[in-house]
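User: structure tokens for this one?
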Amino acid sequence: MIGLIFDMDGVIYRGNKPADGAKELIEYLKERGVPFIFLTNNSTRDPSMYREKLLSMGIDVEEERIVTSGLATKLYMEKHFFPGKIFVIGGPGLHREMKRLGWGVVGLEEARKGGWKEVEYVVAGLDPELTYEKLKYGTLAIRKGAKFIGTNPDTTYPAEEGLYPGAGAIIAALKAATDVEPTIIGKPHEPAYEVALEKLGEVDEVWMVGDRLDTDILFAKRFGMKGILVLTGVSSLKDVEETGITPDLVLPTLKELLEYLKTMEEES
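Assistant:
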């Protein structure tokens, strides 16, 4: 049996608009009991918030099927680090996950009063309300010895107007200001793979369906999965030629993936 991992931004939807064939494909997989999960590098929402977003587009999936880089960061920190105060640069979803650790999150007001000196972890992700002040306290804490953790390396993410700055752009600013290399959790890195496999359960083959060569398809190649690129997000056919990162399959949309799966079913 195959198991499928879907990226979300640029694959299942773009902004608040569902991708062609997304709803029909998910219904097809649910009806046939095919294991699948969503694995997004976007940490601005947590799984419950993403479930609500998907429902608003008519796509109904259980919260347990949704893994964010924020959730993966929380699970990684629980497993590998000792408790310590955290300074978060990120959206509401990442803040929620870090608070669930129960280690203590230093907010901006506390940081202004010198609380940044007690910070042991700076966790950075996509922050739609990024300010210079947040970067300042993150930099100060890392330079004082706090561990630097990045949710994911995506420098951009696809939205309705085009490509917006991603978590990787914010992480790059902190890296430039501190000369410290962060620990990266999300795709194409191993912590995300460990969480994804645990969520999928026992399968014979894993397919990674994504829109980015440098995260989704590289992730597939790195861990022995079948890499399927859909051309509804960031990467194009020209990028395939230029990067040398070669997907196993390139499809215009999820609609074609649904047809591909139906053909496989008929032939089996």
